[in-house]
Structure formats: C-alpha cells, structure tokens
Amino acid sequence: MSKKLFFVLVFMFAAATYSFAAELKLEIPKELSKESQACVACHSNTTSNIYAHWGRSKHYRGNVGCYECHMKKKGEPGAFEHNGATISVIVSPKDCGKCHAKEYDEFANSHHSKAGRIMGSLDNILADVAEGNSGMKTEAFPMGVSAAAVNGCWQCHGSVIKVNKDGKLDPATWPNTGMGRVNPDGSEGSCSACHQRHEFSVAQARQPENCGKCHMGPDHPQIEIFTESKHGINYYANKDRMNLESSKWIVGEDYTAAPTCATCHMSATKDMPVTHNVGLRIKWNNRPAQLKQAHETDLVWGLPSGKITGDMRMASMKKVCVSCHNVNFTEAFYIQYEAQMQLYSEKWAKPGEKLHKKATEVLKAVKGNEYASFANKIDYTWFELWHHEGRRVRHAASMQAPDYTQWHGNYDLARNWYGSYVPELKEVIEMGKKSPNKEANMKADELEKMLHEIQNTENHKWSIGNEDPSVKADRKKRIDEFDKRYK
Question: Which parts form a coiled-coil structure per UniProt (predicted)?
Fold first, then answer.
C-alpha cells in the first residue's frame, strides 16, 4: 500500500464524517453564561465536589459551565425542567461534539463507541441466563432483567438508557458510563468512560489505570499485561517524567521514558495526530475465536474506517514503535507476534471450533428439546479456550508480556485442550454412540472421525504417541546439548 493511497483513504474517512461535526460546532463562550452562573450558585453548595472538579478543568477556564453541556430543548429525549432550565442528566458524545467535533466524529466511528453491540452476543446471554435471572424489575423492565448483566456487562459495554414516563432515567440503565452506551438522543458511546467528570483531566485519561477499568480480567487482561511488560515497568518507575499534563504530548519529544495505552493507541507522534478512533492502529480484532482483522468488523458495521485495512493500521502502529525503537527491533517484534497469532489459529482455534460445532450436533441429537447451550461442561471448556486463554495469549504477545503469553496463554491452552477438551469430546462421542437415536449415533461417528484426524495432524499427533521419531531425536539432541552446556 503506497503512502499516497493511505493518505487519500484517511482523507476520505475524515471527509465522510466532517459534515455532521461542522453542523454541531459551537463557539466557545467569552464569559460564563447566566444559566451556568445560576447552576454554580446552587451546586457550589449542594455538590461541592463536582463544583471543585469543574473549577480545576479547562472547561472552567474556557467559560464552559454546567448549562453548556447539560442543556436540552424541550421535547428532546431525556430532557426535563430544572429550576427554569431544560436540561438532561446525561451528556452524550453528540453533546460533546458541539465543541469537540473532530473527537466526536472519530469516536463515533470507532469500535469503542460500538461496544454496546455486545448486548446481543453470547457474552451477554451468559449473564442473562447462566449467571442471572429476571429478578430485577423496573418500569422499563416490568418482566425483569438480569442483575448480573446490569452490574457487569452493561457497566463496561454500555446499556441502552431508558427514560421512564416521569422523565427520570430507569435505574436498570442508569447510572452507567459504559463505553458503548446508547443514549436517549440516539448516539452511541460515553466520553465520560475515559474522561471522568467533571475535571476531564487529560493526565488522568492518559494513565493505563484509566483503561484498566474494563480492560482487565481473565478474558482481556490488558492492564495486567501492561504492568508486567517492559513498557509498564518503565512507566511506573518514571511516572514523574511522563509529562502527562502536556497539551500536545508527542512521544519521543515531550516524553521518552515509557508509553501508556494512550501513547500507542491514540496519542500523537511526530508524524501522526491524536485520534479518538482507538482501533485505527490495531490490525487484529482479538475478540472472536478466529483470527479477524479489525477493519473487517468496521466494514460489517458500515463504518468509513473499514477502508483502512489491517496492514495499514499495523503500519500506523509501527510509526509509534519507531518513536522509541529502531526499525530492525520493530520489524523483528512483528515477526514474532504474527507467528504467535498463526500458532493460536492453526493449533487451537480452527480445529477447536470445528470440533465444538460437531459436538453440539451430537448433544442436540441426544438431548432433543432438553438441550441448552452452556448447560454442558464442554461448552464452558471451549468458551474459555478461545474467550479466555486464546484472547490472553494474543493480547499478551501483542504487548510483550512473556509470563502472560506463556503461563496464562499458551500453557493454559495446552493444559485445557489435552486435559479437559479432548476427554470431554470423547465423553460426548460415547454418549452419542449409546443413544437410541440413530442421528445421534451418526453424529457421534462423525465427531470421532474428526477428532481422530485432528489428533493425527502435525500439531497434535505427539499427544497420541504418533510423533515422528526424527523430531523426537532432534529434541533429545538439543536437551543433551543444553545439559552439557550448563554442567
């Protein structure tokens, strides 16, 4: 991909989103409005903490007060009358876009703003059914909703904000600062997911803990991975040298000690501007079981950024890397990383998904109407293989965290594949063969044949004693050389 074509596509992406931003843009007030002065007169006493936070913000210095952010027109979704003013509790990205047009456009076209779309996925169904019940009843959910989803999934990914008849926000959906929150005005996202109210400190937003609110835990432990990595070690050792308050904050110019999450994924370099589309420097979307490039999802969602391919995004990330590392170091790292991605895909993901689909066919034939997804141990085993171990190894390798790559990634994949998944597949085969249902018998035979073929591939045949003797001999030779070297 030529540099010329790359910048043409970037320009097309910017042009496609500019018109709406231009339509929203407002001028910065020359002085604090009378409406905001009235808000301050009361809230400096009733919510003094909020008043203090706002007083430390650039909004305060720019004469942007409560009313400028919270104002609404009568009849707009979520609007209500408050002491003579029409306002909304929620300040949506669309509201922020009145002044921050570029940032709004970039965010609106990012994966981050679409995080709420997980609500119809397998992850949220787990919280609805396997983990929860319908015990939480509100005006918006008279039939009930799962408290597990409300307190867990929705708080990171975002809820669909419901406005009740009295104009108040339904407690099942608010408070919520989920990244992909669906707001009453129809916009997707939450700026306050990263920019905490009401100071909106740029230094706070640039720190890795800010991302760690959601990017942590068994399925995507980026904050833990960052902390283990050389990047994280250097950051915490040199935090006072990071110049986090700097307005332009260009890596290699304003700071050189270490990067944070923001450095690599969105902040400025000497030849790239800040972007609020966090996915534009990420080649791989590590959420699915199978390898998928980030732009493929953008294309499905109809986003202009779908034109920025995975390789183009990787080229942008490399520009960040060479702000601190030389080209040879950077290129060698990506060779290592891509090799790990292919290892995960070929050894675990492709055969694992194929086996689980066939095992599900067997279970459905055996159980009939009694079959339910995630009522079977093998469903959890396969889910964790790709959703936990598989994601961990990919994230860890991408961020240079060797312990997570090995002991929380590759090792857990192998242990759970050979120690749990394969034995459970054999149990499903046995169950299908013993069933009086002929379809179950047939599906069990198909699964048994499939498992036998996969176990006899180069990746797995060692586990059934079918390893090539020359490979085993070569490994023994290397072990002997190692023992001799360290006698």
Answer: none
Q: What is the mean pLDDT of residues 75-83?
A: 94
- Residues 104-162: tens digit of each pLDDT: 999 999 999 999 988 777 777 899 999 999 999 999 999 999 999 999 999 999 999 99
362 inside domain: yes
Residues 17, 22, 25, 28: is their CA dihedral positive or negative? positive
Would the pLDDT of 17 be above 50?
A: no
pLDDT for the residue numbered 119:
78
User: How many Å apart are CA 204 and CA 209, to the nearest integer?
Assistant: 9
Whether 395 maps to a domain, the answer reads yes
Q: Which residue is associated with the tokens 């100071």?
A: 199
pLDDT score recorded for residue 86: 97
Within-domain flag for 376: yes
Residue 60 pLDDT more than 50? yes
Residue 101 inside a domain? The answer is: no
Residue 454 pLDDT class (50, 70, 90 cuts): very high
Q: In this structure, are residues 432 and 366 in contact, taking their beta carbons and an 8 Å threshold?
A: yes
Task: Residue 383: give the domain boundaries.
Answer: 328-455
Of 2 and 36, the structure prediction assigns the larger pLDDT to 36
What token pair was written down for 111?
Answer: 């994966």
Q: In the prediction, which pLDDT does 26 show?
A: 58
